[in-house]
Hints:
The complex is a heterotrimer of chains A (307), B (539) and C (305). Chain A contains 13 helices and no strands. Chain A is 77% helix and 0% strand. With 539 residues, chain B is of the alpha+beta class. In chain B, strand 4 and strand 5 (95-100) form a beta hairpin. In chain B, helix 10 (313-322) packs antiparallel against helix 13 and helix 17 (469-478) runs antiparallel to helix 18 (485-498). The longest helix of chain B is centred in the N-terminal third of the chain and has 19 residues, at 3-21. In chain B, 52% of the residues are buried. Chain C contains twelve helices and no strands. Chain C has helices at 5-13, 22-32, 34-56, 72-75, 95-131, 133-148, 151-162, 166-193, 196-203, 208-244, 256-266, 273-300. With 305 residues, chain C is mainly α. In chain C, helix 5 packs across helix 11 and helix 8 (166-193) crosses helix 10 (208-244). In chain C, 73% of the residues lie in helices and 0% in strands. Classes of the chains: A mainly alpha (307), B alpha+beta (539), C mainly alpha (305). Chains A and B meet through helix 2, helix 4, helix 6, helix 11 and helix 12 of A and helix 4, helix 8 and helix 15 of B.
Amino acid sequence: MLSYILKRLLIAIPVMLILIVGTFILMYTAPGSPFASERGVPPAVLANLERQYGLDQPFIVQIGSYIWNLVTQFDFGPSFIYRDQDVNDLIAQGFPVTLTYGFWSFVVAVLVGGTLGIVAAVRHNTWLDYLAVGISVGAQVLPNFVLAPILVLVFTLWLGWLPGGGWQGGQLEYIILPVIALSTSFMASIARIARASMLEVLTSNYIRTARAKGLPMRRVVMRHALKPALLPVISYLGPAFVGMITGSVVIDVYFSTGGIGQFFVASALNRDYGVMMGITVLLGALTIFFNLVVDLLYAWIDPKIRY
Amino acid sequence: MSKFTLLMTTALAVGLSGAAFAQETHPETGETLAEDQTFSYRLLDQFPTIDPQLIEETAGGHVARQIFEGLLTQDDQGELRPGVATEWTSEDNQTWTFTLRQDAMWSNGDPVTAQDFVYAWRRAADPATASEYAWYVELSQIEGASAVIAGEIPPEELAVEALDDYTLQVTLQAPLPYFPQMVVHYTFMPTHQATIEEYGADWTSPENIVSNGAYILDEIAVNEFFRLVPNPNYWNADSVIMDEITGLVINDANQALTRFRAGEFDMMDDLPAGSYPQLEEEMPETAHSVPRLCSYYYTINQSESGHEALQDPRVRQALSYMINRNVITDQVLQAGQAPAYNFTHWATAGFEMPEIDYASWSQEERQQRAMELMEEAGYGPSNPIEIDLIYNTSENHRQIATVVSQMWRPLGVTVNLSNFEWQSYLDIRGNQNFDVARSAWCGDYNEASTFLDLLTSRNANNDGKFQNEEVDRLMAESATMADPQPNYTRVEEILAEEMAIIPIYHYTQNFVLDPAIRNWPMENVENNWYVRDIYRVAE
Amino acid sequence: MLATKTAADNLAQAAPVKGRSLWADARARFFRNRAAVSGLVVLIAVGLFAAIGPFIAPWNYEDIDWAVLGNVREAGRPSLETGHWFGTDALGRDLFARTVQGTQISLMVGIVGALIAVGVGTLYGAVAGFFGGRLDNLMMRIVDVLMSIPYMFVLILLLVVFGRSMLMLFIGIGLVSWLDMARIARGQTLTLRGKEFVEAAQATGVRPFTIIMRHIVPNLLGVVIVYSTLLVPSMIIYESFISFLGLGVQEPLTSWGALINDGAAEMNNGLLWILGFPLFFFVITLFAFFFVGDGLRDALDPKDR
């Protein structure tokens, strides 16, 4: 097991390097510059801006110094657009926000979606099956840039129960609406995966034996079927994580949370090279990490899997 | 305790608390002030910086105006008012002397001196600072500015001098009567040298920042919110009534409006497209539309890379005449904007609107003339042309471009609409890769040259590459004239004859403001508001 | 019956018994699934709407109705008299025609995107799985690397660098999902490779690419079909997100995503139909794709009882 983990971590290094170099190249081919302004920038100032941010140096030097700073000091460099902030500051502020509501969204999506899927599987081909699938699909299909304004309309304006945005350090009332809006994005996928795998498990031999022995259905589901049925749901963690970052863009824009998703898109549109690189590296590292965790969880749940 | 003591104690307590609850009144107007003197407003986007010498957009400018104070500020009419400087004089409009007050202090107790301004202005021009607004120092005609910015001479040679701690002298390279108006701008606000030298790029964080305005930065979360609290060392701190300012970043205009209606904050501008009529109807005390010193126009590419038809002034005129501007202002924008037939905003201080011929024709006459001109130039439905119209991503721009493209159809003009996000857009427009481009220009100071200088051939922002020798000459002359209006009038006439740009409308500032907030500067066309001037009355 | 000569003669003349192929089995199972069938009906209806709509609409999708402009709240409502059956959008353009046009674009994006994803992914995965060994290792490691790249960046940058044409949109959106398809195809190919008919083909000297194209890929078809019907909704959702970012199709063309975005913005102004109609089509079409996809999977996978 340990050697497996080590091998995976070792492969991660060239993967990250390729990721960094690739993103660099892509960034530089895009037209426009972070320093473009509607009021023309004098050439001497532009030259100084480029020098300040290292853009006047040869490509190799830029990549090299970036990687060096990253590895030796965990320094992601300055933001090219937010001149008062470092990329480290921005990530330190935004990442915990996204992680918090992302985590809770996932929990809610698994609980609600998973339950719907299991119910649908247990009551296969009845109206309950269709209803459960219908609810979860309906939630996923409604785009969250339609759902978010509706949520604020209902809960902030009409009912006055919850604030319409902001984060204020993550107090409960600021987390609720973002979590609702984000969890619906992948509730259906989880419900369908849970339903499909539960169906498969329910028809397997040992479950049939348990039913034949006369065990009540609920006991069978909870004690015997649940764990193996959850395996595919766990494997969904990886793509769900990436989907969460994409979905969180809408959440950040509509609920002004200050999370990382919005920096993600804004930096690409504004050509903020520093933030783009920083977030790419962060996300790449997290994806690799998550995939590793998922594979290990696999091994833990299914004793037949061995590395 | 005895009943009597209890009674007396209670009475005393009630009496004292009653005294504490006694409502405050405004010292000048006598209105009853609300207990909650906080002001919160919405920002469209997070500002990139609040370092005055680095700011290049309005959101950062609004914040800088609360936490820093320059030599001069503006009152609610937009007229000059003493800031750190109490007097400003010049005999020849070329050498200006500012006398500073002696009780102005930084938030850390240091006195604000003329050296602070010298440091700040040099810093603005210094290419090492890499300020994207350095061109503003050049624009102000301070002697040596161009050379400093180009890196040819050191910043110390900028013609700004502290004659003593409280006297600042500035020498311009040519007389400029409206130089004091330019000094209001955030680029010329003072900054605290010791703080910047100690903390470098981190000096603007709440823990480190030292500022001299009525408020100081207390907390900031990027893309979420920021908060300002009163600066006790501000020289006029006693007159400041509002004791907290909160700015909320809300990108989506509709979301912001919903939250405004829910009472989460007090003011927002950048209203959702098309929402103003309903707001005006529903909340007449809350919705406002006031003139704003910006003009909206279409730049026409008159360089070689543009469509050849556009090189012919008759075609340009035809395109301009064909647009029914009233449809745009009354049916698309619906927020009180004025149709524009010239470039300079009608509300610019001291500006006399010239007589532009086609402004007084009826729309039918204009359209007829447009068709004739098109035929004369050799184009029209029998010889159609195709042009690329670009605009940056925004609902309003999209609507106007769509409407205009359909208005041009009878001329035999097919329009390819393309929208781009801001960075790409600047790149494309700056490289003349367009035929017609949506543009807007906001005045940097309240005088007509801020608009008309744009269309001189040496101006870096003249993206359409319009060139006219007479315009160049007239504008160069006007800088030193006692009354430049005749030149301005002639320039506007030339612009209309050549149709250098297609003016569409003059801006208004549309915003919603909680009616309990009083003394908002409705007549300041540059939209410079100072929270230290406003207050909230009790309901 | 007794084995008499008559019986034997009768049998010989009776029509040959038709065997039931596996496809027929699957089709029967599919049509027993009511949700899937209704999904199919909806898809056909939406497709007809997109195809026939332009010919029956009184207005076209880009012309502004000048009488409505500026007064959309009253004059822009859905009505049969004005010819604006779905009402107009905020600029006075007919919403029925625009919804039809948006349906065309979104369906195309979804289907073409899914085809690209499936085509590229299947071929890639099949090649990797078939050859195995070091080539497989290399190809799958490349997939891993690509999976760690945040695709949104790449998509935004692609759209910015290469301009926002329809082609770019198709390619960009399609390239987002081929990685999953490649993984799945590879897995299936590994299983298929062990089967006897493949061994036989190799033994008789059939060239590898011919084996891939003629034996592997057709057997992957089941999985591929199912997955592609499930891909189409996510392509359409992706496109709506791109429109949300302002990078979608250029005016005056539109898509569901763009229409819904506009509609959400006009909710506050009370112009609910601008959101309602496109959203309705969007939701029922995606629902239909989901149900059809599920139905196909249930039908084609005999283990799923």
